[in-house]
Amino acid sequence: MHLRMQDVLPVVISVIIILAVALLEKYSKLFASITATMPLTIVLAIWIVYSANDGNKLVMDTFNLNLLIGLLPTALFVVAAWLSIRAGIKLMPTIGIGYVIWGISSWILILIRRSLGMV
User: Fold this and answer.
1) 24 and 48 together in one domain
2) How many domains does the chain have?
3) Whole-structure pTM value
């Protein structure tokens, strides 16, 4: 099995960012949250799809539109987590609630896109 730099580098960058969040959290919650919400996985996903498809414009256009649409359920996950924490709910149930909201909203988006012929 031959590993290429374009296959390994996204994983290395991800680990570095996770470590940065862990270190920054001790000094500044603001900078830790900014680092945690930077579009890291989006960039890595774009890179991987671009490389796998030789930069095909149609593939990239469709993929990036799907990324944009996928941000809504992610935003709803964060809102649900924030409201759960504010309500005094513990960490694991908060994460569970966030994922339930994310899953339901993702499914609703899929159904809407199917009904509009976008899938």
Assistant:
1) yes
2) 2
3) 0.74
